[in-house]
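Hi, here's the filled form for the chain we discussed.

Project: internal
Contact: R.S.
Residues: 181
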Amino acid sequence: MWPETKEILAQRMKAVSSLAEQHNRTLDYGLRVHVIVRDTEQEAREYAEELVSKLDDGKGSSIRDRALDSTSLGVAHQAKNREIADGFGYIEPHLWTGVGRARSGCGAALVGSTDQILSELESYRKMGIRAFILSGYPHMDECVSFGSKIMGQLETCSLPHIYGRVPDPPPLTPLAAGERT
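And the returned structure, exactly as it came back:
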């Protein structure tokens, strides 16, 4: 899933889970979202604003429109997020839609201090989201920031191990052959 308000995500998850139950299936959910984490919320918000401070909205629209997914339902939901956002681009206290002004696809970021981002990720986990695809801009800088501030405090798991669905023998891929820590 791509970011929307927690209320909307919960409604979608409930609706899809009820359909899955009719077929004796249980679903796991994942969330794709950008992250901007700094020592303080103010620093994170300032960085978010700096990211788009020189963006021409016409150019951003052109970038979004030429993307292959520009007519997808998910992209439409991201556009709706921008429409309902407050004057600073937030649809929830730490969910900022500004990144979607310059790209198609996942168009929102969690923005906040270390504790705030950890709290947001935990609230998604409590909703039933078990997998996260996280990124930021510029990619390497935000990876280092997230790694130093957040990663060591997250409980991680391997869903194939949890469900007892690890192939035996494991496939000869870098992910399967690597040791999980």
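Let me know if anything looks off before we file it.
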